[in-house]
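Budget justification aside, the reviewers requested a transparent look at the raw inputs and outputs of the sequence design task funded under Objective 1. We therefore reproduce one unedited record. The lines immediately below are the structure tokens for a 469-residue chain.
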């Protein structure tokens, strides 16, 4: 009888009806999201326009994704299972269920209230089914995998109407080096409120699990530095060749003095801790590091070569890349700058097709309670300000959906030019270039205010190459 009391339907309040009304309008094609939290509105946009999830889907589909994950991921799954087991009695008493998914949104395990699990089974909220946002729409697990903070999805905030009786809260555990999701843990309640302690518990479960990943990443960084030290003796004997060690995300762990100048990072300064590593600000190098990681995951003795533009160099620099492993796990790559003596990497990831696809891609921004879909030519420049990215566009100044300037730069593709750690400009929207007394550059954009965007010294060579000056 107690369980029935806990699972009884909520009396719908005004806020709930407001969200449901917005959901009905949005499903029909309107972009009016008044009364909907921004993170939910952005999830709806992905579900409708990017993933094209059927909002009238009644159950989650079977998970059929091929999964290729490391031992570290298995450890994360086990740790989250332990964390879930520690609160399962409390959650069960409150009429809830706890689930753990992998990075693709596949449910790996479920615990909790028996009656709630019966309702969950009707929606395929169970192991072997996919709750990724791209397959099942806005929900606690799938939306957490798309987010960098815990998420709560209540009632009509779910994209699929069949799940409007559920309240869910989830958080993703992310790789501390690449920031890619590894797993998610979620608490769901059917027609009842979430436990008051859900936020604190989810944050604690994620932080405890990521502590293990940070410790493992520091060990991996130390191994990469040791491999760099061993290779330095060989590199010193080769004129014009320098050496750097990069983690799988393209962050610099250590670089010799010459490489540090080319990459724009401190020289001969080791950074085993992933929080202390340096971003070279060279998207081309990051793509190379990630491509090398993908190749090395399948072929341990793979070695590659290519050419990249570096800081303070007008001509491309040849490089060779060799992967480094720790206990069979890829920890990064050694990059020799000034030599190219191995298999050539593809010059561009995806080639012209990828460029064409990027041009058709819309950038999502928000104005008050409305989503705005922007074509690339409509954006003059982007500016990072605190935890937000602001776009200066033909439709005014808008907040970008993505809080990461690096991600926005990638979405803009070939039209983007990084000119400063806080600014990315649309190269086609530059109207004037001003030189200062000491040779510093500033770009005058073509927005109504003719905004002047500074060019950092580190980015100046790339700007000159792009503009032919």
């Amino acid at each position: 009888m107690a369980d029935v009391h806990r699972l009884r339907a909520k009396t719908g309040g005004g806020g709930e009806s407001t969200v449901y009304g917005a959901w009905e309008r949005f499903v029909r094609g309107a972009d009016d999201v008044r009364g909907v939290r921004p993170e939910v509105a952005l999830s709806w946009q992905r579900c409708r326009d990017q993933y094209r999830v059927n909002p009238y889907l009644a159950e989650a589909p079977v998970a059929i994704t091929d999964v290729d994950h490391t031992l570290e991921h298995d450890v994360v799954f086990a740790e989250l299972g332990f964390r879930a087991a520690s609160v399962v009695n409390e959650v069960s008493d409150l009429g809830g269920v706890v689930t753990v998914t992998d990075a693709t949104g596949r449910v790996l395990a479920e615990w909790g209230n028996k009656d709630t699990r019966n309702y969950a089974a009707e929606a395929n909220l169970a192991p072997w089914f996919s709750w990724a946002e791209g397959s099942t729409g806005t929900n606690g697990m799938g939306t957490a995998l798309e987010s960098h903070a815990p998420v709560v999805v209540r009632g009509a905030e779910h994209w699929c109407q069949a799940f409007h009786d559920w309240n869910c809260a989830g958080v993703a555990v992310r790789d501390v080096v690449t920031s890619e999701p590894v797993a998610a843990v979620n608490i769901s309640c059917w027609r009842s409120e979430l436990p008051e302690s859900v936020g604190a518990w989810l944050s604690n479960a994620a932080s405890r699990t990521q502590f293990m990943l940070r410790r493992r990443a520091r060990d991996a960084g130390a191994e990469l530095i040791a491999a760099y030290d061993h290779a330095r003796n060989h590199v010193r004997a080769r004129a014009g060749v320098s050496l750097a060690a990069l983690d799988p995300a393209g962050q610099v762990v250590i670089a010799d003095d010459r490489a540090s100048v080319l990459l724009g990072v401190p020289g001969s300064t080791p950074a085993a801790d992933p929080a202390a590593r340096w971003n070279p600000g060279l998207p081309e190098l990051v793509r190379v590091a990630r491509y090398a990681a993908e190749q090395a995951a399948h072929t341990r003795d793979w070695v590659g070569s290519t050419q990249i533009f570096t800081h303070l160099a007008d001509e491309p620099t040849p490089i060779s890349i060799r992967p480094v492993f720790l206990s069979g796990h890829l920890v990064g790559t050694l990059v020799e700058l000034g030599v190219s003596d191995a298999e050539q990497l593809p010059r561009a990831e995806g080639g012209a097709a990828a460029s064409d696809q990027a041009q058709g891609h819309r950038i999502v921004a928000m104005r008050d309670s409305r989503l705005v879909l922007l074509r690339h030519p409509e954006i003059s420049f982007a500016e990072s300000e605190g935890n937000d990215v602001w776009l200066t566009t033909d439709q005014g100044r808008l907040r970008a959906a993505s809080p990461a300037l690096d991600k926005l730069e990638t979405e803009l593709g070939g039209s983007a030019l990084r000119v400063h750690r806080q600014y990315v400009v649309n190269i086609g929207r530059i109207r004037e270039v001003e030189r200062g007394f000491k040779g510093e550059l500033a770009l005058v954009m073509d927005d109504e205010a003719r905004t002047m965007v500074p060019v950092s010294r580190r980015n100046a060579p790339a700007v000159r190459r792009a503009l032919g000056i």
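Residues 45 and 418 are 27 Å apart (CA to CA). The longest helix spans residues 198-236. Computational costs for records of this kind are itemized in the attached budget.
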